[in-house]
Write a structure and sequence with these properties.
heterodimer, A: alpha/beta, Rossmann fold, 7-stranded mixed beta sheet, two-stranded antiparallel ribbon, 27 helices, 58% helix, 6% strand, B: alpha+beta, SH3 type barrels, 2 helices, disordered N terminus, disordered C terminus
């Protein structure tokens, strides 16, 4: 290889940071911003440096646009890293670039100005990437420049003289591979020293006029020549793969096959894991009921908390599997191709290929998806995408769908055994969400959000192997978010529900659930939901699921737990007593359309700057859910008798 | 793939050629960008600078955007954007590179 593990000649770190005056002790920790163009490996580096000490929260009220993490350092210094959205220049065009721009300039009220910058560039295309060094160095902050993908550069026969580049720019430069972990020592050294540095010396090579793009590009070219940069050979594998993935016939077929395979495996692979979790939850519940003395507290713990939270936690393997697939698609670079394939279809519905990426991540969760719409430059396109994002089948719907499908849809092979009937039902619910979403987009874009067709500019990253490391970090992250929700929102709902289901006392005894507060509320809304085929118990679930969709599963778990049905027969069997098949179809449709997610509403409010859009979104989705499930109930009754 | 808007194929071109007119693999040199300022700026940041070489690559299935090789990377543009980028043929090499 190219020996970038020997930091001596390759890395041009500042001579001796300790001779510089010590940094004044502030009341806040040191913050280092990681910036770079899209696909240069910012997040990989961030993950590499912070490991599990990072925080990515998907809850309203928590800052979500930048990921923060504590760097792993040998000394006791506390250095926080912040991973900012990718930029091509400091001339922002889309909202996500605005975030990076504002943070770097210290213009964000809610975030302190970083103390120094790590600029990460793609070494395999240094000519164009170096352009970004000009605006970043002009900020005058201590900067470390990392030339990432050293492994790829070496394999494809490219070269660069790091010491020369460091000398020209008068700042430390290192050649690294964030995914392989090469050259990471130099970053540690910089981070240790960053506490001691106040100002950066200006570069020896004069910076260009930042407004003039051709001048900046010439400047970067000159710099590349001085650093004897030799561009690597074109990525042959990427071209070979594109010949297949973008083939006029094979391309769309592979696209469809990938989507179908994902759903089939979510269903079949997750099944044994979920059964295992289910066994664990129910046997531990039974064990606890033997160990604990009989008291209202035992009932609260087992019937309320354990049944409620446990019936949601069971779905963790399935949700992680979905995130695993989305992670592989994203990290490998296929997602950009998918956006390309989808652009024409999206354009027909008034959107564009870039709307496809947030919409795809909405399959995992609408909250990050709403945030991901920031890449869309056109404001009206962006609002339209936000409005339809929650119609995509998010992972919170998965527990509800899985429960109802497993309870009501027989496991029969179809299409010659290629797909099972439950998987096909699941797939059609996903398709239903997507088709409805683009029809609504079309409606919005031809009425209240009319605009001229916008441009579509998307860089195609080379294909890369997703690393085990980055995939597992993603999954750990999601598991944390999911379990956090189970431990807070769902736990709280389970406890409140248990209390409401046990009061008021009748002659000093807990009442039958129909007579409890929860039952009264359920009965009160029963007339409104009876036409959809739902009874009052489902009604309670619909109300509690306003907090988050998967709460209905926990609620039903709690209700049946109180009634003493659940542990023996399982939630699937218990739900059969309260829903007809037509009612189950209607409930599936209701969940496909209804906006039952407080977190999403909160993030939409924040992103659109007011209550107008979230209120509109909630209302139209509720209207759609009600009419859709009414229609589904009656159609299903007609066809299934 | 026959494009609908192909202009008359004479020896001399009465209308200036754009990126949308080129067959796959035909190298060319970008002449000027006829686009709103912010879009033009973004394209320039991505390497669509006057004087730079551009090679048209694959088109997305069904007449979607097309991938262009420019300045060491690959960037996809819709046809309506590509048709606003005026080009001149590369005088040095008129060879078609297919890969």
């Amino acid at each position: 290889m190219n020996g970038c593990h020997s930091p001596g000649p390759k890395t041009g770190l500042l001579p001796n940071p300790s001779i510089l005056p010590p940094r004044p002790v502030n009341d806040r920790p040191i913050i280092v911003a990681i910036v770079g163009p899209p696909n240069s490996g910012k997040s990989t580096l961030f993950n590499r440096l912070t490991g599990l000490r990072q925080k990515v929260a998907n809850f309203p009220g928590v800052t979500v646009e930048h990921r923060m993490g504590k760097a792993k350092l040998k000394s006791h210094h506390e250095v926080f890293l912040v991973d900012l959205p990718g930029i091509y220049s400091l001339h922002p065009r889309a909202e996500d670039e605005q975030v990076t721009h504002d943070v770097l300039k210290g213009e964000r009220g809610d975030f302190p100005k970083p103390d120094s910058v790590i600029l990460i560039l793609d070494a395999t295309n240094l000519g164009r990437n170096l352009v970004l060094a000009a605006p970043v160095l002009s900020l005058g902050m201590p900067t470390l420049i990392l030339l990432n993908m050293a492994d790829d550069l070496a394999v494809r026969g490219g070269k660069v003289d790091v010491a020369a580049l460091s000398n020209e720019l008068n700042c430390p430069v290192a050649l690294i591979s964030a995914s392989k972990g090469m050259g990471i020592d130099s970053i540690q050294q910089f981070l240790e020293g960053t506490a001691a540095r106040l100002n950066a010396p200006p570069p020896k090579i004069e910076l260009p006029v930042l407004q003039d793009v051709p001048k900046c590009r010439q400047w970067a070219h000159k710099l590349g020549v001085r650093a004897s940069y030799k561009a690597p050979a074109p990525p042959l594998w990427t071209r070979r793969l594109d010949a297949v993935f973008l083939h006029p016939v094979a391309g769309p077929l592979i696209f469809a096959a990938v989507v179908i395979a994902v759903f089939q495996s979510i269903f079949s692979w997750a099944k044994p894991l979920m059964d295992g979790m289910q066994d664990l939850v129910s046997t531990s519940g039974v064990w606890m009921s033997h160990v604990l003395p009989d008291s209202p507290w035992r009932s609260l713990l087992i019937d309320g908390v354990w049944s409620g939270v446990g019936s949601v936690v069971v779905f963790l393997p399935q949700i992680l599997l979905l995130f695993l697939f989305i992670g592989i698609l994203e990290d490998s670079g296929y997602l950009a191709r998918a956006a390309l394939i989808a652009d024409r279809t999206m354009a027909r519905f008034g959107l564009q290929g870039k709307s496809f990426i947030p919409l795809l991540s909405a399959y995992a969760c609408a909250v990050p998806a709403v945030m991901a719409t920031r890449v869309i430059e056109n404001k009206r396109d962006r609002i339209a995408t936000i409005m339809i994002a929650p119609l995509m089948t998010c992972s919170a719907r998965l527990p509800v769908y899985t429960l109802l499908i497993a309870a009501f849809v027989p496991n029969l092979p179809i299409l010659g055994g290629f797909l099972s009937l439950p998987a096909a039902t699941m797939l059609s619910l996903y398709v239903l969400g997507f088709v409805t979403a683009i029809l609504i987009a079309r409606l919005l874009k031809s009425t209240i959000l009319k605009s001229k067709s916008s441009s579509f500019v998307l860089e195609m990253p080379p294909y890369r192997w997703p690393t085990l490391r980055s995939l597992s970090l993603r999954l750990i992250d999601r598991a944390k978010v999911f379990l956090h929700r189970a431990g807070t929102v769902i736990l709280l709902v389970a406890i409140v529900l248990w209390v409401l289901a046990h009061l008021p006392l009748e002659h000093g005894q807990t009442p039958p659930i129909e007579h409890s507060f929860a039952g009264t509320v359920g009965k009160a809304i029963e007339p409104a939901i009876k036409p959809l085929g739902f009874n009052w118990k489902i009604g309670i679930g619909l109300i509690t699921s306003l907090a988050a969709r998967e709460v209905i599963v926990g609620t039903l778990g709690t209700i049946y737990g109180i009634e003493g049905k659940e542990p023996s027969t399982g939630l699937q069997a218990a739900v059969h007593q309260d829903l007809s098949t037509a009612g189950a179809v209607a409930l599936l449709i209701f969940f496909a359309f209804a906006m039952q997610c407080f977190s999403t509403l909160a993030v939409v409010k924040r992103e659109t700057g007011g209550w107008r859009w979230p209120v509109f979104q909630f209302s139209y989705m509720l209207a759609l859910a009600y009419s859709g499930s009414w229609l589904a109930f009656h159609l299903a009754n007609y066809f299934l008798h | 793939m026959a494009s609908r808007k192909r202009t008359s194929k004479g020896a001399s071109h009465p209308t200036p050629l754009t990126l949308a007119d080129l067959p796959t693999g035909q190298r060319c040199i970008l002449d000027r960008l006829d686009l709103p300022e912010d879009t033009a700026r973004r394209l320039m940041e991505l390497g669509f600078l006057p004087g730079n070489e551009i090679v048209p690559g694959r088109r997305a299935p069904g007449g979607g955007p097309r991938v262009f090789r420019v300045d060491g990377s690959e960037v996809a543009l819709r046809r309506e954007t590509a048709s606003r980028l005026y080009i001149r043929r590369d005088p040095e090499s008129d060879l078609v590179v297919l890969s």
